[in-house]
Amino acid sequence: MTNLEVRPVPEQCDLVPSLGPVVELHEARDVPLGGVRAMRVRRTLPQRALPMVGAWCFLDEFGPQHVDMRVLPHPHTGLQTVTWPVAGEILHRDSVGSEAVVRPGQLNLMTAGHGVSHSEFSLGTQPLLHAVQLWVALPDGVAEGSAGFEQVSDLPVWEAPRARATVFVGDLDGTWSRAHVHTPLLGAEVVLDAHADIEIPLVRGFEHAVLLLGGTAEVAGTPHTTSGLLYLGDGRDHVRVRSLDGARLLLLGGAPFAHDLVMWWNFVGRTHTDIAQARAAWESDARADRFGVVAGHDGARIPAPDLPNIRLQPRRRTPKEPT
Q1: Is residue 48 part of a domain?
Q2: Beta bridge partners of 273
Q3: Is 26 within any annotated ligand binding site?
């Protein structure tokens, strides 16, 4: 997935000291992507008060809506893209030669490394789509490495009374996904039946957050009925989750990320220079040298927006005021 904003905001995300257990609701930002896709997404990462959760550095949710999604080839650096559909089917093509349809219950994981390009198209005419698109920041030693792609279909399920969680990334209480990531992470879709009341085991050293994908729930004693991201901080061994009528949740976690990041458009780097060089490469006639070619599009692509007329500066996490 691409960030199609015409004037993307530069972001630098930093390792954050331990906050201990907190409960903070970070409202989603409604982003109209229009034109290419005529879609709107709800973006909860990054934002000023919460740039990252572990290595998770970008989170968009779109749908459920009937829409023809057509995202032409575009580039990425320094990250992994995670595509997790709740409803609908998406065709992925990339410059390492992959072509795969991802369906609910399946994971598409693309590693950008030094550079990759890809496209994403919905299948059918005005299909019902509901999905989350996430980015995982890559650590030193991998961020400038080779590009790659994997689709994982046989994902494990952690079970509790009236609840189950499909683990698509990392480990939940010994239930491991075989998806290949490069920092300690957790990504799981949790489905609660009516009258579910469970405790989900967590890793104390991780920070965690929960996005509501459907229904209503109470998380850590707090009603969660919005499209915002409920940030739980770190230092928790478990979180209690309840639902009267049933709910679907996205549970994210990870060890605090150990590197500063600059994020702009579809690029993740360490410095302003990293971003400027990636943009220049994508806009050059030799773009294929770094980003390859996505087959089936006859050279069509999404051009990069202009860089802002400033040097990309750090963005620090801004603590929320007590409520």
Answers
A1: yes
A2: none
A3: no
